[in-house]
Design a protein that fits this description.
The chain has about 325 residues and is α/β, with parallel strands linked by helices. It has 10 helices and 13 strands. The protein folds into 2 domains: about 5-175, Peroxisomal Thiolase, Chain A, domain 1 (3-Layer(aba) Sandwich); about 175-325, Peroxisomal Thiolase, Chain A, domain 1. The strands form 4 sheets. The chain has a 5-stranded mixed beta sheet, with helices on both faces. The protein is globular. Bound molecules: oxa(dethia)-CoA (UT7). Oxa(dethia)-CoA binds near residues 34, 217 and 312.
Length: about 325
């Protein structure tokens, strides 16, 4: 038992229904060439009509558990980071708990920090570990496709559905050697889903007020500027040289955002592991999905050092440095 956490296993679930850029060309005035060159996205996955965020989260967590034959009743807490919960309440995490038939001694709750949900959940998991929680699952899960205006070409080409799950174990090893979260609530209008909460509860289901609205160019500029200064600060404060980093796991919103941040920090693009090409922006799910794919294909070695960075609506963002043990 310790006051830090280590990654024990990572899993993922992506719906099998693929929507390509060529499919989108038939829906709005866009082109594969525009989408690929401006964002890096070629295709994304969409949940089936009868699939909910909790279903995706459940399958990702099962996948993480199966990889190491982990009994999920060993968990002490189950956190679902999502901006697209099944319902306002009960939480998506409680439904996942029910789907898995877990014991009552496991805490379950949702965490809403939009695309930065995974970064925020890491900090919560670290706090729980310092209180004696041994095994903590963090699942990032989203069904964004239900909150997209499919007539708005400026947003509908960007997002996708999916889930990634990490099982953390409390540890005496350093684990997260650095973590910092940020917010700027004054820019809320640049990226939002206005309806569906207590502010605007009574819109009809097909109302555009339930859909994502974004001023993309402004979000882009702010994300690049803040993420690069936050990452630089992390490297300076921990006296980390770029060549000491084994890899970067960045929120997959736009390949140009990621590469601009890396360029400003003097980090070669190849250090970042990306899957935006295949899944688009899956918000809180994007980083745990990448970690799961990285563990499947390369595996993390003892002492490897990784940077994790995310940025989302709020605005909220965060940077972590993680040393694997
Ligand atoms: O998850 C965190 C939150 N989200 C983000 O971080 C997303 C941040 N923003 C972005 O990724 C980019 O700003 C976008 C990909 C959304 C847009 O790329 P951009 O290079 O900033 O393009 P733009 O908004 O400046 O638009 C350029 C042109 C415009 O036409 P005009 O005004 O120059 O004639 C748009 O109307 O591209 C047009 N456009 C499109 N054309 C074809 C916008 N969307 C499309 C489209 N297909 N899908």
């Amino acid at each position: 038992m310790g006051s830090n956490i280590r990654i024990l296993s990572a899993g993922k679930y992506l719906p099998d229904n693929v929507l390509t850029n060529y499919d989108l060309e038939k829906m709005v005035e866009t082109s594969d060439e525009w989408i690929v060159s401006r964002t890096g996205i070629k295709e994304r996955r969409l949940a089936r009509e009868n699939e909910f965020t909790s279903d995706l989260a459940y399958k990702a967590l099962l996948n993480a558990a199966e990889k190491i034959s982990f009994d999920l009743n060993e968990l002490d807490a189950l956190i679902v980071a999502t901006g697209t919960p099944d319902r306002l309440f009960p939480s998506t995490a409680a439904r996942v708990h029910g789907l898995l038939g877990l014991k009552k001694e496991i805490a379950s709750f949702d965490l809403l920090a939009a695309c930065a949900g995974f970064s925020y959940a890491i900090e919560v998991a670290r706090g729980l570990a310092s209180q004696g929680y041994r095994y903590i699952a963090v699942v990032g899960a989203e069904v964004l496709s239900r909150f997209i205006n499919w007539n708005d070409r400026t947003t509908c080409v960007l997002f996708g559905d999916g889930a990634g799950a990490i099982i953390f174990q409390s540890s005496d090893e350093p684990g997260f050697i650095y973590g910092k979260l940020y917010s700027n609530g004054s820019l809320e209008g640049l990226l939002e889903i206005p309806g569906g909460g207590s502010m605007l509860p009574s819109c009809t289901a097909d109302s555009q007020e339930y859909k994502i609205k974004m001023l993309g160019r402004e979000v882009f500029k702010y994300a690049v500027s803040e993420l690069s200064s936050a990452l630089n600060e992390a490297l300076v404060k921990t006296q980390t040289k770029v060549n000491q980093l084994s890899g970067i796991f960045a929120h997959q919103a736009n390949i140009r955002i990621i590469n601009s941040v890396l360029e400003r920090c003097g980090i070669p693009f190849e250090k970042s592991f990306n899957n935006i090409e295949r899944y688009g922006n899956t918000s809180a799910a994007s980083i745990p999905i990448i970690i799961a794919e990285y563990m499947e294909t390369q595996g993390m070695k003892q002492n490897d050092l990784y940077a994790i960075l995310s940025f989302g609506a709020g605005f909220v963002w965060g940077v972590h440095l993680y040393r694997h043990s």
